[in-house]
Amino acid sequence: MSFAHGPTNHALRAVSRSQLGGPSRWLVNVRGIDTTRSTRDLSSLSYLPCSSARTIRTTLAYSYRKAMPSAVRPSSPVRYYSTQTNHMNTHVSQTRSASTSNHPPSSHPSYEALVVGAGPAGITAVGNLLEQQIQPILWVDGAFNGGRINRAYREVPSNTKVKLFVDFAEATAPFRDIVGGKSQPEVLRAIRELDQEKGCDLGKAGDICSMLTEGLVRTPGVVAEKGNVREAVLNSGEGGWSVAIAAGKSQPATTVQTKRVILCTGSHPSEPPLPVDLPVKHIELDDALSPTKLSALLAPLGPTTIGVVGASHSAVLVLMNLTRLALSSKPDLDVQWFTRHPLRYAEYEADFIARDNTGLKGEAAVWARQNLEPETMASSPVRNVITKFAYEKGAEKETYEREMKDCSHVVQAVGYTRNPLPTLKDGKTGREIQVVFDHDRGVFKFAGGEEVVPGLGGAGIAFPERVVDRKYGHEEFNVGFFKFMKAVRRWVVEEWK
Predict the structure, then answer these.
(1) Tens digit of pLDDT for each residue in 430-460?
(2) Which of 482, 19, 454 is nearest to 236 (CA)?
């Protein structure tokens, strides 16, 4: 499947915000600029604030033909540049002018691609789209803060080697331009000083996300819009999508046109209801994975018994955090570990990794081997903290009824669930579209069939690539910074372009 790719070098004109129906806050003055030149050349643009401002950020956006005086109206949409005051850590523009949804599609700002989400996958998608000259790109996120990795998991030890984070940061030409900037080398310098064959705290990976985000939102061809995508309507006839975006739940939505929508919307820890009704309090996995938050949560409590469900990388890290607390600042803490299967480890072969996505790696693997295996647990201090309950699949109810009744709290480390998606609709019928992701191609199909939804792609932890374990033959989903990069690099050329 091929997404149509139109020209990106439209005529350039100076447009005030008042011409676009928005507040007359900034005036863009063009001094002697050739209106047919590439929009990447910003050297002859000057920015005149209509009110005082402490910081001026440069961004790329679109106006629509209706806003232009007829004397200067070109035959194609017009790009305009605007600026704004911004006090966020990342330089995100909210000056894009978008019309309300009661205008015909042709009157809306138009983009070659719209990327939803600004975590590692969204960053990857924007970088690869730019490298393939698919622009302008509208990039939409609620925070532009590096996603859940940077927000919640900075203290978590990675299961990825440091060198792969470095490779990720230099994987595309736009990324390399950012890394080579005068203000950014110290971010990678600190990471390069670490042992490249070991893991690191995910805070280092979060710093890479912040660095790349700040660079990408300044890159010509990218418009960063802080907000949420409410709805995407598949246009009939002319193709592409009409996408409604709002800054908040109570804010009115504005609409843009785009040829492609790339969903990098992320996931959150799964917390299914327990099969038994017990008076236990649930500790969120994100909090249990943070030693700082976990300590603050448990410190005021008296004697506490916490049940931990799972045997994954996350479950082992939670057990490790709880054990360290019990053996130091909270000796009245007991842990009950509920698991359906033995621990599994990644196996490093000559040219591949068996159980690459499902096996324990890094610090979690080392700690588990030293403390949780039957032959080591008996002689480890862990034996005074953790009681293990092993059971078969389907025996959860009876096991929990019998053994979990003494728990005051429970942590479930049982995987991740996709975050909610924007509503997808058919523009011809007005009906909601149900879709299924193709993990091999990075595209979506209409539910119940093989027809590909035009111009709709996905990536990241919510929409990862499917792989087959070369040793054991089972299917896995590739989750990780550089795994996202390898998948998107292929999908953007073979499917999204």
Answers:
(1) 999 999 999 999 999 999 999 999 999 999 9
(2) 454
